[in-house]
Amino acid sequence: MLSIFPSPDEIRALRKKAGLTQEELAKKAGVSQSLIARIEAGTVNPRLYTLIRIMKALEEYVENEITAEAIMSSPLIYATPEEEVDQIVKKMWDHAISQLPVLGSNNSIMGTICERDIIEVFIKYKNKALQLKAKDIMSDPLPMIQPNTKISKITSLLTGDIPAVIVLKDNKPAGIITRSDIMRIYTEWFKSRD
User: Fold this and answer.
1) Cα–Cα distances in Å, from 24 out to 30, 31, 118?
2) Which position among 37, 83, 85, 142 has the lowest Cβ density within 10 Å, counted as fewest Cβ atoms?
3) Is domain 69-188 annotated with CATH 3.40.50.2300?
4) Taking the complete model, does pTM exceed 0.90, yes or no?
5) Residue 138 contacts by C-beta under 8 Å, 6 or more apart in sequence?
6) What CA–CA distance (Å, rounded) separates 88 from 191?
7) What DSSP element (H or E) covers 172?
8) Taking residues 92-112, what's their average pLDDT?
């Protein structure tokens, strides 16, 4: 029989995936830690209202507590201002990425190169495009966020034309979060609820 309610094992797995202790989940859901323990052990049949509160607490945790630092890709792959287009294309191809930040000598973010930028350069300059440098073709820098930025804020930044954000740690680029990263996090979360 198909059940729409999570099993004790599923609740335990979701809690662990969220990185919460039984006590932390209990506090967020407004129930006792011992009740969470008994639910996970399968020794008590909780009320529907209690299950809803537990699932809501887990869902809110994913949306509000997962931070940039937890999901960023690091170390940051980047281009230098003097790198030529053919080197940039190879780097993007080798790492299966669609955008590269351009970093100056002091790790300052100077701009971004996206697939779109490269295609436009090929159309405009044809074979001469390969001799152009990152500094010649880069567009504006990606938005920069702090490591403690919540996933809900990151998601709202990436819903428009912005393909990625740079995570700064101690005011230095430490990683990148792309739309693919956000899709992966939400897919894993929703799959774990099925």
Assistant:
1) 10, 10, 48
2) 37
3) no
4) no
5) 79, 81, 102, 110, 111, 112, 113, 117
6) 36
7) strand 172-178
8) 94
